Amino acid sequence: MMEQYIIKGGNPLVGEVVIGGAKNAALPILAAAVMTDGTCTIENMPDVRDTNVLLQAMEGIGATVNRLGKHEVVISGSGMNADCDVDNEYIRKIRASYYLIGALLGKYKRARVALPGGCEIGSRPIDQHIKGFKALGARIEIENGMITATADELIGCHIYMDVVSVGATINVMMAAALAKGNTTIENVAKEPHVVDVANFLNSMGASIRGAGTDVIKIKGVEKLGNCEYSIIPDQIEAGTFMTAAVATKGDITIKNVIPKHLEAISAKLEEIGAQVDEFDDAVRVVATKRLDSTQIKTLPYPGFPTDMQPQMAVSLALSNGTSIVSESIFENRFRYVDELTKMGARIQVDGRTAIITGVKLFTGADVSAPDLRAGAALVIAGLAADGYTTVSDIGYIYRGYEGFEKKIQNLGGDIQLVNSEKEIARFKLRIV
Ligand SMILES: CC(=O)N[C@H]1[C@@H](OP(=O)(O)OP(=O)(O)OC[C@H]2O[C@@H](n3ccc(=O)[nH]c3=O)[C@H](O)[C@@H]2O)O[C@H](CO)[C@@H](O)[C@@H]1O
Ligand SMILES: C=C(OP(=O)(O)O)C(=O)O
C-alpha cells in the first residue's frame, strides 16, 4: 500500500498556522534565477515536491544549488551552458518545467525542454507561450515530447495575449527581459505571483513595469546580476486553511499572509456567514454554525481562484441550501465530485457547472486524490466527516503543501500518514 492519510473527522480546527512561500511564484522564480551567471539568494522557498523536482532538474543542467536551511536556497547558473536539454521522468510530470523555456531562451537564445505535465485538470495548451516566443523572434519545434526554441536574437515586440494565462505571461516576460529593445504584452495575467516574478527579475536588474495590471512593459537589458529575494506567501495554502476552518466549524488564525491577495476568498466566506478578521499579515476565520449557500465562478485574479474551487466546494457541500459553482478556467476540475459523493455529498456536475445541495454531515469513506487541490479538499472533507476517511494518492498533495498533516495536527485535526493496513488499524484502535 502506498502512503495514505487516515483521518478521524469531527474535531473543529482551532489555533494558528503559518503559511509558507507560494509554490506558483517559487517555480518561475527558480527558473529565472539561472538567467544570471551571478548568484541569487532566495528566501521563503516552499519545501514541496514541485520545487524540489525543479531544483534537481536545474542541477541536472549544471546550475549550482546550495540550500541554506529548509527555506533558503542560493542558486548560480554559471556552470550551465547553451546546449543543455531539460528532461527526466519527473520534470515531465510538473507544469512549471515550461518556465525553463523562457528563462533559457532569454539567456542563451536556445532552450530544449520536455513538454510540461501538471495536474490533469484540463487540456492545458501552451499556444500562447509559443505565440509570445515567436513574436520575440524565436523558432519553435516540437518533437518526441520536447519543445525546442531557438533564436539568433530576441527582439522586443508587441504581443496581445488571446487568453489570460499565468504561465504564458510569466514565460514571455522572462524571455523579453533579455531581448533587444522594448516589449509590450497586453491582456496579461495579474496574479500576485506574476507580480512577484516581475519584482524578482527587477531585483536581478531587469526593467519590467506594469505587472499586476493588464499591460506589462519590458525594456530589454543585456544581462542580469545577483539578487536577494523573499517569495510572497502562498495565497492558495492560506485559502485552503481558511476553508478548513469553515468546513470544520473551527477558528483558525492564518499567519504570514498578504490579506489583499485573499480578498476573493475572504469575501465569499463572509458572504456565506463566516467571520473573517484581517490583520497586517494574518487573517482569522471563525465559523461556529452551519453556513449559507452561494454562487461561485472561477476567474483570473482578482476573481475567485480556480486553485481554491474544490476546497470551497467542500465548504458549500456542508452549507444550507443550494450553491452553484462554475469553473471557467479548466474544463476538468470536478474530478473530486465522485469521491465526495462517497462521503454523502450531493453534487451534480453538468459540464463546467456543479450544483451543490448542502448536507448536514459527511460520512467517512475511502477516497482517492485526483489532483493537488482536489486532494486537499478531500482531506478537509475527511476532517469534517463523521467517522474515518482514508485519502490515497496523496503524492499529489505533496506537490504543493509542505507539512500538510503536521499543520492540521497542530490545529487539533486527527490525521495520520500511514502506509500499511496495520497502521490504519492502529490509528483506529489508538495503539501507539
Ligand atoms: C504552475 C502554476 O503556476 N500553475 C498555475 C497556473 O497554471 P497555468 O499557467 O497552466 O494556467 P494558465 O493561467 O496558463 O491557464 C489559464 C487558461 O488559459 C488557457 N491557456 C493557457 C496557456 C496557453 O498557452 N493557452 C491557453 O489556452 C488554459 O487552458 C486555461 O484555460 O495558473 C492556473 C490558473 O491560475 C493555476 O490553476 C495553476 O495552479
Ligand atoms: C494546478 C496546480 O498546479 P499545476 O499547474 O502545477 O498543475 C495548482 O497549483 O493547483
UniProtKB/TrEMBL annotation:
Single biological process term from Gene Ontology? peptidoglycan biosynthetic process
> Which enzyme class, named as a word?
transferase
So which domain of life are we looking at? Answer: Bacteria
Keyword Lipid metabolism assigned: no
Q: Which residues form the Enolpyruvate transferase domain?
A: 8-407
Q: Which reaction does it catalyse?
A: phosphoenolpyruvate + UDP-N-acetyl-alpha-D-glucosamine = UDP-N-acetyl-3-O-(1-carboxyvinyl)-alpha-D-glucosamine + phosphate
**For binding phosphoenolpyruvate, which residues are annotated in this chain's numbering?**
K23, N24
Cellular location of this protein?
Answer: Cytoplasm
Q: Name one GO cellular component term.
A: cytoplasm
To which pathway does this protein belong? Cell wall biogenesis; peptidoglycan biosynthesis
GO molecular function terms noted in the UniProt entry? UDP-N-acetylglucosamine 1-carboxyvinyltransferase activity
Instruction: Give the 2-(S-cysteinyl)pyruvic acid O-phosphothioketal positions (modified residues).
Output: C119
Q: Tell me which residues this entry annotates as catalytic.
A: C119
Is Cytoplasm there in the keyword field?
yes
Which residues bind UDP-N-acetyl-alpha-D-glucosamine per the record? R95, R124, P125, I126, D127, Q128, D307, I329
Sorted UniProt keywords? Cell cycle, Cell division, Cell shape, Cell wall biogenesis/degradation, Cytoplasm, Peptidoglycan synthesis, Pyruvate, Transferase
Pfam families (UniProt xref): EPSP_synthase
* SUPFAM superfamilies in UniProt: EPT/RTPC-like
> Which InterPro entries does the UniProt record give?
Enolpyruvate_Tfrase_dom, Enolpyruvate_Tfrase_sf, MurA_subfamily, RNA3'P_cycl/enolpyr_Trfase_a/b, UDP_GlcNAc_COvinyl_MurA
E.C. designation(s): 2.5.1.7
Q: Which family does it belong to?
A: Belongs to the EPSP synthase family. MurA subfamily.
**UniProt cross-references to NCBIfam families, sorted A to Z:** murA, PRK09369.1, PRK12830.1
Q: What does this protein do?
A: Cell wall formation. Adds enolpyruvyl to UDP-N-acetylglucosamine.
Would you tell me the protein name for this molecule?
A: UDP-N-acetylglucosamine 1-carboxyvinyltransferase
State the organism's lineage: Bacteria, Bacillati, Bacillota, Clostridia, Lachnospirales
Which gene produces this protein? murA
